[in-house]
Amino acid sequence: MTTDIVPTPTARRPGPKSWLALVGAEAKMVTRDTSGLIIPLGLPLLILVMSAAPASQEVIVNGRTALDLFVLPLVLTVIIATIGIINMPSFLAYYRRSGILRRLAVTPASPAMVLVAQVVVSLLQAVLGMILALAVAFWGFGANPPAHLWAGVGIFLLALAAMYALGMMVAAVAPTPNSAVAIGLVLFFAFGALGGLFGGVQMLPEALAPLADWLPFGAAVQALGSAWAGVALELTHLISLVTTTVVGTGVAIWLFRWE
């Protein structure tokens, strides 16, 4: 009598198809969240449309207008801040709260895959928001490109990293999706208010105005404005964005739990 030996199945790490499927699933989750989809795209466009007409007529320096130097940097920063600080942490907090990350931890599909997929989808959303804003600004209001294009691209990517680091920190400490949204909104409006969201840094009290240079929202707006104007970037703004990225990422790694 012979005994058939059943081969033991071998667990394999997910391949490219699994990654694409996971990114696709995350994209569906984002598109089903109506407010999370519309606000990061609609709010910046509303700010742009309300401010662009008069700002596009006021030339400031090097042929660049107030639209180029103030409105567009603000709009781009709002896009990445709303997605990075508010939207993304709420999804990650939901996955942890519902036990998805814990269950994935005992499978070949690491829970880190969900984090990566969510970051990829939110990055795509940020790029879409940037394209929409720039298309409206350039074709609708005659905006000009940055005088230092590659500096502008670099600053945008650095600001993106800083906002996402803050978002990961929010996701690490928020126990529920609602608390993640609440913490994200507090950070967004606090940093925004001190960074020129409600009327420019010059409108801040004298004691608070210096904070705009050191906090990531104001640093991003002003650094992007410098790239658009073609003037030298201030070291303070770069230090702010780099420090936020490093500290935020470190704190998120230290505090984040799968359950």
UniProtKB/TrEMBL annotation:
Database matches in Pfam families: ABC2_membrane (PF01061)
InterPro entries the record matches: ABC-2_transporter, ABC2_TM, ABC2_TM_bact-type, ABC_2_transport
The keyword Transmembrane belongs to this UniProt entry's keyword annotation: yes
PROSITE patterns attached to this UniProt entry: ABC_TM2 (PS51012)
Localization: Cell membrane; Membrane
Family: Belongs to the ABC-2 integral membrane protein family.
Protein name as it appears in the record: Transport permease protein
